[in-house]
TrEMBL record:
The keyword Oxidoreductase applies. The keyword Oxidoreductase applies. It comes from the Bacteria. This is Gfo/Idh/MocA family oxidoreductase.
Amino acid sequence: MGTGVIARHFAEDLARVPGCHLAGVSSRTMERAAQFAGLYGGVAYEGHDALLQDARVDAVYIATPNSSHFSMAWAAIESGKSVLVEKPLVVNVEQAERLIGFARERNVFLMEGVWCRFLPAIRFVQQALDRGSIGTVRSVTGELAFQHPYDATDRFFDPLQGGGALLDLGCYLVSLSLMLLGRPDTVSGAWCAAPTGVDRTARLDLDFGGVPATLRCAFDNTGGNLFVIEGTRGTLVLPSPFIGARQVLETGPAIGRTIRALGKSPFAARLFSKIARKLPLPGVRRHAFDFPGYGLQFEIEAATRAIQSGETAATLSPPDETLEVLKIIQTIRDLPCS
């Protein structure tokens, strides 16, 4: 449901998943739907209701503007379709609570598509932490920032379209932190507004039982975009841009602190990531996890397994954790703009 860039990436990666095929695509106009179907296959539907009424469709992927996620997912659940929604699931906590409750009431599969959770590199990091490979985790630092010229009508800045850096970028940082460390004990931070009132930049300070996580997202610059986990015996680094991680760097505490310091300079962090992809670095062990396409196939595989097993949620992206992410984002947004 939807024909934008992420929908095109999803369609390409869907073709890489055995047992899955694109049944159709819906758009507000037949022209857009037909053009998309001509490229990727399936039936073209004018209007999303037409797709939901087709009994041949088992599951839907919602790839429309953030502000429409709630109503479209609700309609899909009502029709009995399994539902995968591109992040963010919805734009606020109230919508999330209602939608998750409705899916449970109807016994229908619902999942937020935070695709980085399912990448092989991220799974490696989670398993390494579970094994204690870097000792006890001492801190987490993450940044996700991309320059977007201000345009009040653009989805990034338009509040009516669910804009803001926290919903677009910060959700990745928070979601990954919760996946690796659990639920935080405290949440604090700060944010700065764009002229439209949405958050243009934000900092989140989370504490996980004495383990601090410092997270930053922004639309006003392109950042270093590293994700660094420091432990008592070593450091794990997801190089820039970490949301599409194809490798994990493992190193000792001293080099880890140096890499974290590099993250304060966007140019230095990006240069380091580029070098690390191509050249061996002393004291740094590289774990490579290359894959074809955009990396969306891993979340598609997880959703498919869960649906075929009769489950109503995916283990790696449970609805309760999606709700917790939105609560943390809402906590920051409720603070006075700095």
